[in-house]
Amino acid sequence: MRKRITSALLAAVMVTGLMSGCSSNNDTTNTTAGSTTAAAGNTTTAAPDGTQASETAAPGGKKYDGVELTYWSMWTNAEPQGKALEAAAAAFEEETGAKIKFEWKGRDVKNILSSALEAQERFDLFEDDYTRISKNYVDYVADLTAMADAAGYGDKSYTVFNDQAKEWAGFLPCLTEQPTVGGIFYNKDIFTASGITEDPKTWDEFMAACQKMVDAGYQPMALDSTYAPFMFGYHLARNIGESATEELAINGGWSQNEGVVKAAQEMIDFVNAGYLADGAPDEYPASQNKMGLKQDVAMVVCANYVTSEVNANTGVELNWGLLSYPAVANGADDSSTFAGANSIAVTKYSENQQAAFDFAMSIVTGEQDQNKANLANQIPADPANVAPPVQNGTTEVLVQTTAPLSWNMGLNANADKISVISEVVVKLFEGSYATGEDFAAALDALY
Questions:
Q1: How far apart are CA 414 and CA 249, in angstroms?
Q2: Are strands 320-323 and 339-346 parallel, antiparallel or unpaired?
Q3: Average model confidence (pLDDT) for the chain?
Q4: Could you tell me the pTM of the whole model?
């Protein structure tokens, strides 16, 4: 039986998974919340009553001379994303005259946004997960639909995020800043060395590919306990779909669903075949790092930021590829992909909504977006831009995605039980259950 992972570590699965693991190698040390004033970009201002005010520049002046925008960022100015934002602000000020004051809130911004927005604290733009913006903050953010249409934003962004945000909010509440996609990220060199010439599309083909890797002396799958629910959630979604998983997570009844038993048994067979890397499920990020440190582990199921994490943590530039999670026999969902995004919203009470929108547009499209993608090794927010090599294949997958899966594919639907559900899932990969029925019964025992 594989070693048990602590509940404290398992609590990490409750995060959205969208936060990038990219780190900066520069010598800047200010990584705590703070503020700096920098530059900004193209816009028009809104009056205090929310109507758009005239922004005709004075003769010889710039469009937004005298305008200052306050930007609450989920990044820090020591991170590559923060440095890219500062570069975008400098370019925007040069072009338009608007000044940007950054408040570097870091990842904890999500913990203070609701109360700050309700109190109408004076900031014009902020970043957070697009799901929270579209659902939790919808009463406090500006409707960007008309401005986005006028700017041609639809042709400069991923349809999947715009459609989802509009469905949840009833209007376009944000612009995608950092897209995320999930699947099986793999070392192309190991696939080649193992004689795998075509991407496996079904579970049977995938199992056969894993055996080829083992026969060639490689370990197929890295897995850290933090991402065990993500991997099993993907497999479960292929078998029963995300909506059914959500219902079970909330109400129980796992043993009565044959798809749950089947999915668990397939994972048990996967583990028993020896397809997990040595030590997996490991403590994050030990298992995924073995892909770079030992270079004999081929794959990991995660979101795309894992590629930058492994490269940065190990100092090895792997030849990455992306597989769609394979379809299963008699499954309910054979094509949906996890996709998410950190996004930029404009506050509903901003007195400079158009200017704020224009600055956001300058960040997520064109030259500044390409610079951000390059600095942070992330997927560009503008599909016309080029993904860095570490993100090979991600742009193509996102362009084709229409119905995205959420983080952990429905397992997170019950916030009160996700921690204990995750513990049972980790035990599944540790080899604690002899059959799929045993696993389903263990989940039902939680209710």
A1: 6
A2: unpaired
A3: 90
A4: 0.84
